[in-house]
Amino acid sequence: MNPPTEPDLGTPASPLEETVTIEIDGLPATVKSGSTIMRAARESGVDVPKLCATDSIKPFGSCRLCVVEIEGRKGYPASCTTPVEEGMKIRTQTDSLARLRRNVMELYISDHPLDCLTCSANGDCELQDMAGAVGLREVRYGFDGENHLDAETDTSNPYFSFDPSKCIVCSRCVRACDEVQGTFALTIEGRGFDAKVSAGIGENFLDSECVSCGACIQACPTATLMEKSIIDNGQPDHSVLTTCAYCGVGCSFKADMKGDQVVRMTPYKDGQANQGHSCVKGRFAWGYSTHKERVLAPMIRESVDDPWREVSWDEAIDYTATRFKEIQKKYGRKSIGGITSSRCTNEEVYVVQKLVRAAFGNNNVDTCARVCHSPTGYGLKQTLGTSAGTQPFESVMDADVILIIGANPTAGHPVFASQMKRRLRQGAKLIVIDPRKIEMVRTPHIQADYHLPLLPGTNVPVVNALAHVIVSEGLCDDDYVGKRCDLDSFAAWKECMLKAENSPESVAEISGVPADDIRAAARLYAKADLGAIYYGLGVTEHSQGSTMVMGMANLAMATGNIGFSGCGVNPLRGQNNVQGSCDMGSFPHELPGYRAVEDDAVRGTFEKNWGVEIDPEPGFRIPNMFDAAIAGEYKGMYIQGEDIAQSDPNTQHVEAALGNMECIVVQDLFLNETAKFAHVFLPGTSFLEKNGTFINAERRINRVRPVMKPRQGMAEWQITQNLARALGYPMNYAKEAEIMGEIATLTPTFSGVSFDFLDEVGSVQWPCNESAPMGTPIMHVDQFVRGKGLFVETDYVPTEERTNRKFPLLLTTGRTLTQYNVGAQTRRTPNVVWYKEDLLEIHPHDAETRGINEGDRVSLTSRKGDITLSAIITERVQPGVVYTTFHDPETGANVVTTEYSDWATSCPEYKVTAVQVAPAVHRSKWQQKFDKRASEQGKILETS
Amino acid sequence: MTESVTVFVPNETAAVSLGANEIAERIAVAAEKNNVEVNIVRNGSWGMSWLEPLVEIVVGNDRIAYGPVSVDDVDSLFVAGFLQGGEHDLKLGPTADIAYLKTQDRWTFRRCGLIDPLSITEFQAHGGFAGLKKALESGTEHVLEQVKTSGLRGRGGAGFPTGIKWQTVASTDAGQKYITCNADEGDSGTFSDRILMESDPLTVIEGMIIAGFAVGASKGYVYLRSEYPLTQQIFGKALKVARESGWLGENIQGSNFSFDIDLHIGAGSYVCGEETAMLESLEGKAGLIRFKPPLPAIEGLFGKPTVVNNVVTLGSVPDIVALGGSTYDEYGVGRSKGTLAFQLAGNIKRGGLVEKAFGLTLRELIEDWGGGTASGRDVHAVQIGGPLGAYFSADQLDTPMDYEAFAAVGGMIGHGGIVVFDDTVDMAEQARFAMEFCAIESCGKCTPCRIGSVRGVEVIDRIVANDDREKNINLLNDLCDTMIDGSLCAMGGMTPFPVQSALKYFAEDFNK
Fold first, then answer.
1. Residues of B near A (CB-CB distance < 8 A)?
2. Which residues contact B55 (CB under 8 A, 6 or more apart)?
3. Mind telling me how many Å the CA of B173 is from chain A's nearest CA?
4. Which helix or strand (DSSP H or E) is residue A672 part of?
5. Do B292 and B206 share a structural domain?
6. Does residue B110 fall inside a structural domain?
7. Which residue of A562, A870, A876, B172 is surrounded by the most CB atoms within 10 Å?
8. Sign (positive/negative) of CA torsion A277, A281, A286, A289?
9. B40, part of any domain
């Protein structure tokens, strides 16, 4: 069933509430004051012709097709640029208008190729539609005059082509790149008839600043900007509405299909997280699901040195169950466990944690949030009472001051970053706290008011210094705190913040941030009417990650910035369903809904529903699993959709742990790093084959709908269910909706959720229950979830990871736009054209003293290990700090990261590693071992 | 050593292009050789371009004019004793008595040629800054009232009532407001803005400051076309001189009103003379037209309330404030109040600037002042108002110079440029030029202008080549209607006027 068509109303909606009454072609219409005539007409069902207007961008007035006649006014005003007025009488069709529109169309077509029938936009071209609508029959100018038909097509971008011979210079692409995306990569070069769209100064698209988000293609009314997949395949025959499987923005997309083949992913305009926008990954990098390296049959092997053997599902499940039972018999009930995927649907994740609790009989279940936002869970639960973000994305449009801490939205959450940039271009102020000069600091028409480039590891002192200024200068919102927060904790917190060690002057010394900037930034945030904090893994992946989360919550509470639109504490969750995976209780200490497994009452309801006893003792976190494995106590693991061997820190430690285990089951799309240590490989499904729900960073539950049946023959929840049954626990869901039904029954924050409800409303933000039947966009509105907000003292405890003469630099890590996380998906798409390998960013001073030039191979060494990679020299990093990404298994960035982690949640301290960098020639020892193993595993595969 | 003789040699683009700088140099050299002391003053131009370079000598209480002088005439002038007003073929007598000048209504341009443009003393001695003084004394309401009463209409070409424009900006609530002066004088045959800016720049500056005071703006920008380099030099110096003497900048003349002006140079685009394209260009963007509403008076430069006024409009303001709006209102006819500086150009015997109250006829300008064509042949066609103005035939020369009277016959006074053609002109060629000019200068934003102008040239070529002539004439008319009705601005919207006037009144040229 196709998703409802999204009408194009021509110009953006008016923000005003009042209405006016007008007359369109003799019939009355009541429309919002401030609307354009075009919008008013189209809302009333009168499709005034248009070419240069589209409702995602401001009107332009270029094409002159949308002209109308207004009683009492002479001339033919453009309806896209004329606002309605009370009592206005408009005619959209008259003989003069018809003639004028036809003549304008005639001019367009006098400079346009006449190849409609073989054009890739045939059937989906607004120029074609308009020529038909105005009744164009002839081009009296002939076709021998000046034209642009010889213009050359630019096919540099792997996903779309730009054919200027079909361009009508409506500037929709330029305006979309400006207003929607905020990259300003396109311009109109030249004047008059020579005017043409240009991606930079005489560059092609690939060499320009274009980030391949697709907004220009969305906006283009002709075939000028067109997806290569449509050029190759033709127009789709149906669409399925689903949700992207990349990051925590959770964009809604229409999968445009021909049969069961995806020909395009089109961002859905009514998507409540993305409103019709997309980024290069969701829009174009979906080819991995049909990549040749997809494993489509289950495989088993007795030992990791044996070749893989393809087997039937039954055999694979039975083998797994048998091995797990044997291990538990030999090593104890707690010797096996599981990891749920933060990429799989809630339904798929729920059944895995149920498998562990009901079939394994323990609580050894964890998820990737362990290594990213677990401190958010802890910190926000402590202070506010709920471990999730407080606002929807659109709240940013009401913010006066935006404070980004330890996040790089343009790389990690591109579609949300575009929305944030829109607010910033309107005039909101910006403070960026990050060791690097991230793009947001200086980007077209935006400049951060303050960039505090702190040294990695000094988050807490800096947030304390901000608090010091706010408290000492009397900038707290005492009214708000008095009504809503716990006053004893507030008093204690204030005393703590006023300590001398928290003064900007003291903190300047350890953090490298000038005291004046700290003061100014603090004042800017505190004095704002609405100040919003957005943060990422630069906050959580530290030894004091939880402390820092609480530090930010303290700041927000003290300044009255929680509970309204435009403020809040917003964790930018990384994965498409990490929020959901946490919500589903993929924690060793919590059942679904963040309720302690030790709580008898809560555990009781689950036991009753599941018909089984649940272990009251919390289980292993992932780092504990590794330690236990090395100690010989943890021998079996069921890993759903996570590549711990690549993404977890201190790779050699992880490999040792995995090597010491007896039955590792990997359920994934491709043979990954973890699979090299596995004994059972259960092929999983991509999001295009899943039926379920994802939850994004806004707590928004969105539907994932399958466009094709599972390529490996079985839905992932069915795999888990079969395993549970083979282990002796009767799990008997008939379909995914049933699983959600059970979740809703057992989880008060989800009790109103069902597939039917989601199909009806599109998406909903939990809590969704009787007290909030339509969901909860903003949390803590009347009071905090825990009652009174709690201030927690945040004393600075420096990480034990220190620089010294041997390791004088600090390494921090992060993301890029075009590669995603471990790269399993994006490395198998044309995105590699932008980013082929992990690179080390190093400051010119540090490079020079080491004799390193741009592009040189360098060794990156820490006390845990070393790797060799290529260097790029940039002032994005400061002297003393280097940076890299972890997309490429061959590079092995995590060989270098340490075992230090957050005191409360064990979230690894990826962001602070003491390292040395030097020119290198060979691949490091670990990398050579990797190469050997990769070729061995490769060899093994061929013989199987 | 006798007393020093004051010699005026104009520093003005037309005069300079005809050797005025070399003449000044030669006079200095010759004076020294002749052991005479001369004080050479580089004044502006009186606007009698047909007499440039016009060299004047102060003799007693008179200024005696000699012109048009060429550098080779200097020696013979010295021999003739011109420094004492001696007889010479080029002697014209007292400047003030020259009929061309004497019969004008020199108001706004009365100091042009008379004074050293960069001398505050001379400027003030001849009434300069009296308007600004009066404004600062009387307050913003008084100023607005005078401008409204005067009936002053924009001299750039649109003729919009200046008082209403200023009142709109004054009434719009905003922190920052701007005054912009549109000095992108791009119309063919026009030079009044240039002459005023080169010959009496301080009056334009005074007008801008008064405007800023009246509406509450603290900042002004002059957008000067890049093709006027000498104007840039002179006006730039005038700004400096005004600042140094406390008439521009912080706390003007000790008042608590501060206003400063930046001089911004264009980049060779005719369409940047259109106010919204000018604002785009000032903002550093490509000169593309903005749709209206919103009006620049409410949302203009950088989104702030902005006055966009022509050079002469602003130059007319000081007198209006100093003498009162009703004085200005007494000149002119109908709704065309005050004077306009008409510019005679093209195939004309005596080209130049003629400032007159509205109401005289086109014929008077062309024949009495202009002396008919330079070639001596009959006046065949006249284009008034720039390249977007209709061509008048010889039958229409008795039309009075009045905005409404011109509009009634399908013409346009515009900025007052009058370009004369004799009977050797090919009006089909002129019609083609109208389309070609539009194609070259089009900003490219709207379809009827961007593509229509190119097609217009092609269609006219076919008509002239007798290729399906009748069909193409119909097509041309249809295209003209489309451009008039559909264009985003007057560039495309008015290009058809010269074309259609050529088709109507000079059809024979299309039928050769």
1. 269, 286, 288, 291, 293, 439-455, 458-459, 471, 475, 478-479, 481-482, 485-488
2. B7, B8, B9, B23, B27, B65, B66, B67, B69, B77, B82
3. 19
4. none
5. yes
6. no
7. A562
8. negative
9. yes
- The complex's ipTM works out to 0.94
Domain C-terminal end among B102, B135, B163 = B102
Asked whether residue B160 falls in the same domain as residue B281, the answer is: yes
Q: What DSSP string describes A766-786?
A: SP-BTTBTT--SSSSSSSBTT
- CA A614 from centre of chain: 34
Q: What is the CATH number of the domain that holds B232?
A: 3.40.50.11540
Candidates A611, A610, A642; CA nearest to A625 is A642
Residue A34 in 3-state DSSP?
Answer: coil
CA dist., res. B374 & res. A431, Å (int) = 70
Distances (CA, A) of B222 to A797, B235, B263, B278: 60, 10, 5, 10
**Identity of residue B278:** M
What is the crossing angle of helices B201-215 and B162-171, to 10°? 40
How many angstroms separate the Cα of A88 from the Cα of each of A9, A23, A50?
19, 6, 21
Could you report the per-residue pLDDT of B10-62, keeping only the tens digit for each?
999 999 999 999 999 999 999 999 999 999 999 999 999 999 999 999 999 99
Last residue of a domain, one of B75, B102, B129: B102
Number of domain units in chain B: 4
Burial (Cβ within 10 Å: 0-12, 13-18, ≥19) of residue B144: buried
Q: Which residues, 6+ apart, have CB-to-CB distance to B83 below 8 Å?
A: B5, B7, B31, B36, B38, B57
Q: Provide the CATH number for the domain around residue B440.
A: 1.20.1440.230
Same domain membership, residue B434 and residue B362 = no
Q: Do B384 and B475 share a structural domain?
A: no
Show which residues on chain A lie within 8 Å of chain B, measured between beta carbons.
Answer: 59-64, 67, 75-76, 78, 81-83, 96, 99-100, 103-104, 107-108, 110-111, 140-141, 145-146, 168-169, 171, 187-188, 190-195
Q: Do A569 and A562 meet the contact criterion of CB atoms below 8 Å apart?
A: yes
Min Cα separation B428/chain A (Å): 19
Q: How far is B512 from chain A (nearest CA, A)?
A: 22
- What is the length of chain B? 512
B452 contacts in chain A (CB < 8 Å): 107
**Same domain, yes or no, for B40 and B183?**
no
Whether residue B290 is found in the same domain as residue B347? no
Query: Residue B84 maps to which CATH number?
Result: 3.40.30.10
* CA-based nearest residue to A107, from B485, B240, B44: B485
In a domain, B108, yes or no: no
| DSSP character at residue A59 | -
Domain membership of residue B417 (yes or no) is yes
Mean pLDDT by 10 residues, chain A (944 residues): 86 96 96 97 96 97 98 97 97 98 98 96 96 97 96 98 97 98 96 96 94 98 98 96 97 96 96 96 96 95 92 97 97 97 97 98 95 94 92 97 98 98 97 98 97 97 98 97 97 97 97 98 98 97 97 98 96 95 96 96 97 97 96 97 93 95 97 95 97 97 97 97 97 97 97 97 96 96 95 96 96 93 92 93 98 97 95 97 94 93 94 96 93 80 56
For chain A, the distance separating the N- and C-terminal CA atoms, rounded to the nearest angstrom, is 41
Chain A contact set for B288 (CB, 8 A): 188
Q: Say yes or no: B454 and B477 in one domain.
A: yes
Q: Find the CB nearest A100 among B441, B451, B486.
A: B486
> Looking at the partner chain, which of A60, A104, A190 has a beta carbon nearest the beta carbon of B486?
A104
Cβ atoms < 10 Å from Cβ of A469: 23
Range of the domain at B377: 332-422
**CATH assignment at residue B407:** 3.10.20.600
Q: How many CB atoms lie within 10 A of CB B28?
A: 15
